[in-house]
Amino acid sequence: MQPMSAELKAKLKERLILDEEDRKFPYHDTKGNITIGVGYNLTARGLPENYRMELLEYDMAFHWMKLCQCFVWFQSLADHRKIVLLSMSFNLGFQRFLTFNKMLSAIARRDYEEAAKEMLDSKWAHEVGERAVRLSKMMEDDTWNG
């Protein structure tokens, strides 16, 4: 099988973007399928693992950058505590994560017991259940809690 020529590929891409549109957010197509991007049918095809892992890498880098920019002490934390904050930011979304003022203040003071307590004393902890328990233990003890 011959590969598609660069010229044909460019023209096809232009045509598909015109016909399908390039949509940033998922939508339902005319048959009710969840679709994203340029007509990518999530309902029928799902996301291949390489796309999912690429999205995960992108999200991890995004949350790392945000935490490094906002908290001068973040990079000096032990790795397990960094993982806790990255996981929370990932789960909550960065803006909602920033509302954990008491926890963040406790971490800045290196009072990890208090930070763990504040994590558990939140609406988020009730929403995620065991995840909050595991992460608060990691914060308090600086240990992996899988």
What Rg do the Cα atoms give? Answer: 21 Å
Q: Show unreliable segments.
A: none
Distance between the termini: 47 Å
String of helices and strands:
HEEEHHHHHHHH
The major pleated sheet works out as: 3 strands, antiparallel
Specify the overall morphology. elongated
Please report the first level of CATH classification, the CATH class of the largest domain: Mainly Alpha
Structural class estimated from helices and strands: mainly alpha
Number of domains: 2
CATH topology of the largest domain: Lysozyme
CATH architecture assignment of the largest domain: Orthogonal Bundle
What is the mean predicted local confidence, pLDDT?
97
Helical amount: 55-70%
Q: Give the strand order, joined by hyphens, for the main sheet.
A: 1-2-3
Q: What attributes characterize this protein structure?
A:
single chain, 146 residues, mainly alpha, Lysozyme, 2 domains, 3-stranded antiparallel beta sheet
Task: Tell me what you see in this structure.
With 146 residues, the protein is mainly alpha-helical. The protein folds into two domains: 6-45, no CATH class; 49-141, Lysozyme. 64% of the residues lie in helices and 8% in strands. It is built from nine helices and three strands, in the order αβββαααααααα. A three-stranded antiparallel sheet has the order 1-2-3. Helix 6 (101-108) runs antiparallel to helix 7 (112-120) and helix 7 (112-120) runs antiparallel to helix 9. The longest helix is centred in the middle third of the chain and has 22 residues, at 49-70. The radius of gyration is 21 Å and the shape is elongated. The mean pLDDT is 97.
